[in-house]
Amino acid sequence: MNDVVKSLSPRLIPAADKPNERPTREEAEAAVRTLIRWAGDNPQREGLLETPKRVVKAFKEFYSGYEDDPKDVLNKIFAEVEGYDDIVLVRDIPFYSHCEHHMVPFYGMAHIAYYPTKGVVGLSKLARLVEVYGRRLQTQETMTSQIATAMEQALEPRGVAVMIEAEHMCMSMRGVQKAGAMTLTTQFTGVFKDDPAEQVRFLTLVRHGKA
């Protein structure tokens, strides 16, 4: 591994360079049984006998984003768009993720906009990109940045705007227990970062659906 890779955040290390230490399904199920016992229950009682298998199966779905490469999601660009170069916005993309600090859910809506240059991607691909990053252990701040960075790298647009609004169960069901509190994060690049009027336009479209 070269010095550049060594200096990267662990989140950015290429998959090929990650150590192959993934536990077996049996080890994962045993870990669930341990947690059940730690919680104070009996993993051998009838209602919990199959729980470790169900939890491991659920985890595979919850964290399927680790198996996906965002580059593959955005790899098809449609260049024939009749000269269209104005804003493209997909708003109200629902997502579910898990907080990396407590492994409890956070969920909400993502809104993504960009100004195309060399072409556009299918609108469903933006929703898919949110899912790829959402189905990982995450922080909302990191997820917001990752989506914007992936768009920048794949599309080379004039600018990208990403907003995520979410409720975090680590605030709602534990800790301060403030149900309904919403967290909002944004990331702007290009013209959205340089021109406050473009940020206003994006926010107006997200909130009201008109420029």
Automatic annotation (TrEMBL):
Q: What PROSITE patterns does the database record attribute to this sequence?
A: GTP_CYCLOHYDROL_1_1
Pathway membership: Cofactor biosynthesis; 7,8-dihydroneopterin triphosphate biosynthesis; 7,8-dihydroneopterin triphosphate from GTP: step 1/1
Key word Methyltransferase present in the record?
Answer: no
The UniProt record gives the binding positions of Zn(2+) as 99, 102, 170
Q: Give the organism, scientific name.
A: Microvirga makkahensis
UniProt-listed Enzyme Commission number(s) = 3.5.4.16
Q: Which GO terms describe its biological process?
A: one-carbon metabolic process; tetrahydrobiopterin biosynthetic process; tetrahydrofolate biosynthetic process
Q: What class of enzyme is it?
A: hydrolase
Chain spans, region Disordered: 1-26
Task: Relate the assembly described in the record.
Answer: Homopolymer.
Q: What is this protein called?
A: GTP cyclohydrolase 1
Q: Which SUPFAM superfamilies match?
A: Tetrahydrobiopterin biosynthesis enzymes-like
GO CC annotation: cytoplasm
**What does the record give as the reaction this protein catalyses?**
GTP + H2O = 7,8-dihydroneopterin 3'-triphosphate + formate + H(+)
